[in-house]
Design a protein that fits this description.
Elements (H helix, E strand, L loop, with lengths): L1 H21 L9 E5 L2 H4 L4 E5 L9 E11 L7 E7 L11 E2 L3 E4 L5 E9 L9 E8 L5 E2 L6 E7 L8 H9 L4 H11 L9 H21 L16
Length: 234
C-alpha cells in the first residue's frame, strides 16, 4: 500500500511539474504582457492580411481589435503597456494607420483591449503595406513570450480577378476589368460570387445593367470606361 501511494504521489508531482514547466503564459518573477490580434483575422497567429478591395469605395477605415494579456498576477493599481512600430520591419506610413502608443491595463484586471485602425489610401491600389508592432518594455511591464511580443498587419486595396470569372461570371458580367469589378463592388457591396444560383447571378446582372445606364445618363459624354479604354458593358 505504501509503495503504491509513493508511486501515485511521485506521478502526481511529475505531472504538476511538467504542467508548470510547459505553462509559458504565466510568470511570477516580473510583470509581463503578451499581444494578440483579432481571432477572426489572425486565426491565432502573429499576423493578419486584409484587403479593402472587396469593400465599397466609401469604406475607408477598418478597425482591428487587439488584446493585451497579463502574464502573472493582477495589480490593485492600473498599469501601462507601451507599444512601438518597428520601422525597419514596416512599410506603412503614419497616414495609413492609427494606433495608441500606450494602453492602460485597469486595476485588478488581467487584460485590456485596444484598436489599430487601417486606413484606405491611394497607395494601396498599387502595393501592400506592413505594420510591425511590438511591446516595448516599460516601468510596469516587460514583454512575455517571444511568439507574442509583436504583431504584423498587412493590407492593400489591390483587386484581383475572381477565380470563377471565366467559368461562371463571364456569362453574366462579360469580359473582366478592374474598373468593372470595382463598379460591381460599389453597386452591390459584393466582391465575390461563389456558390450562387443562375437566378441570383442573373438578378445581379440586371441590377448592374440598370446601374450602368444610370451612371452613363448622369455622366453624358463621359460613359464608364475601363483601364483598357474600353466601354464597360454588362
Amino acid at each position: 500500500m505504501k509503495i503504491t501511494k509513493i508511486i501515485f504521489l511521485s506521478s502526481l508531482f511529475a505531472l504538476l511539474w511538467t504542467s508548470c514547466q510547459n505553462d509559458g503564459f504565466y510568470y511570477q518573477d516580473e510583470a509581463r504582457v503578451r499581444l494578440e490580434g483579432p481571432k477572426e483575422w489572425a486565426l491565432e497567429t502573429d499576423s493578419l492580411a486584409f484587403s479593402f478591395a472587396a469593400y465599397p469605395s466609401e469604406i475607408t477605415r477598418q478597425e482591428m481589435n487587439m488584446s493585451l494579456f497579463v502574464m502573472g498576477y493582477n495589480s490593485p493599481v492600473e498599469r501601462k503597456v507601451k507599444l512601438r512600430v518597428v520601422s525597419e520591419k514596416s512599410t506603412a506610413k503614419s497616414s495609413q494607420y492609427e494606433m495608441p502608443a500606450e494602453v492602460t491595463i485597469p486595476a485588478n484586471a488581467y487584460s485590456a483591449n485596444f484598436t489599430i485602425t487601417l486606413l484606405r489610401t491611394q497607395e494601396l491600389l498599387q502595393e501592400t503595406v506592413r505594420l510591425y508592432v511590438e511591446i516595448e518594455p516599460s516601468g510596469d511591464f516587460t514583454s512575455g513570450v517571444i511568439e507574442q511580443d509583436h504583431f504584423l498587419l498587412k493590407w492593400n486595396d489591390v483587386l484581383s480577378k475572381p477565380q470563377n470569372w471565366d467559368t461562371e461570371l463571364k456569362e453574366f458580367f462579360g469580359a473582366y476589368s478592374q474598373t468593372k469589378h470595382r463598379f460591381i463592388i460599389d453597386t452591390l457591396a459584393i466582391g465575390e460570387f461563389k456558390g450562387m444560383s443562375w437566378a441570383e447571378l442573373n438578378n445581379y446582372k440586371i441590377r448592374m445593367k440598370n446601374a450602368l445606364t444610370a451612371y452613363n445618363q448622369a455622366n453624358p459624354g463621359n460613359p464608364l470606361t475601363d483601364e483598357n479604354g474600353q466601354l464597360v458593358t454588362f
